[in-house]
Write the C-alpha cells for this entry.
Amino acid sequence: MKRILTLLSFLLTMFAMNSNLNAAIITAISNGGTWSAATSWNLARAPICGDTIIVPSGIEIKVTDNVELDGASAACAAVRITIIGSLRFSNGKKIRLASGACMNVESGGSINPSGKGGGASENISIDGDRVWEAGEGPLTGPYTMGCLVVLPVSLVSFEVSNDVANNFNVDWYVNSENELAYYEVSVSKNGYDWELIHMQMARNTDEETHYALRYQLMDVTTDYIYFKLSSTNFNGVRQMLAMSTTPYEFKLEDTDQLVMIPNPVQTNSLTIIAFELENAQEYEITAVDNFGKVVVQDKMSGNKGANTFVIENDRLKAGIYTIQLKNAERMTSSKLIVL
C-alpha cells in the first residue's frame, strides 16, 4: 500500500510538471472577446494553470463561463493576473483561482459585474475565499487580490447605526496603522451603485484609533442602506475592509429638515438651502470639506417658519461637503456634492 501511495504521488508530481511546461505569459488581444475563446488570446488558447495572464489597456474580456483555475487537481499551479483593461462578468459567472494566485487591477483597469443583480453569485475566489463579488459593485484599480501585499492596517470593527432623525453614524476602529494614506466610505441604496461620501486621512499610530462619520439621507425609497469602507496606502494599493447593511426608515421631522436644491450641483452655480426655524433668531451656515476644513461660514438672521439661504458655488471646489445649520435650538447637517 505504501508503494502504491508513493507511486501515485510521483505520478501526480510528474503530471503537474508536464502540465506546467505549457504555462506561459498569455495576453488578451480581442476587445469584447470571451475568456474561454481561443481567439481572445495571443497564444490561440484560453489561459491555463500556471499562466501569467494579462488584459491590456483598451481590451475588455467577458466572463461568460465559469473559469476554473482553482487547483482542483495537484496539476493546477497558481496563476498571476494583471488587469489593465477590464473584465466583465455575465450573470452568475465565477472565476475560481488556486491558493497562491495573484490578481492585480492596475490604475485604469476594472472588474465589472453584469448589472443584472448578480449579487454574490458573480464572484472571484482564491483558494475558496471570495475576494470580490458583484454586490460590491465595479472594482477599479489600483487594487490587489491574493498577492503578497500586506496593507498597513488592521480593522478592529466597522459599525453603522441610525437614529430617529435619520442620521447614520459610521464608526470604525483600527490598529497597527503604518504608511496608510486614507480611508474611503461609500454608500449605496441598492447594494450595487456606490457613491463616495467621505475621505478620511489616516493618523498612522500604533495605538487603537477611532474614526467616525455622521451622514444624513433623505427621501430614500428602500428598506436597506449599504456602507462600504476601503483603505489606500502610500503606494496606491487599495483594499475593501468591510461592508455593512443597515435597515432604513424615514423619520425626519419637518422642523429638522435641511434641504438643498439642486444636489448634486455644478461649480459656479447656486444651491438653495431650505429649512425651518421654530422662532426668529440668529443662525450660522457652514460648509466643511472632507478634511474637516471650514470653507464657508456665514451668520444670518432667520424668521420663524420657512427660510432659505443661497450658497454661490464658486466658493466651493468640486468635492463632498457637510453643510451645517447652527442656531440656539439645534445643529442640523446634510451633504452637498459639488461636481
In short: Confidence is low (pLDDT under 50) at residues 1-21, 250-256. Residues 154-247 form a domain with the Immunoglobulin-like fold (CATH 2.60.40.10).
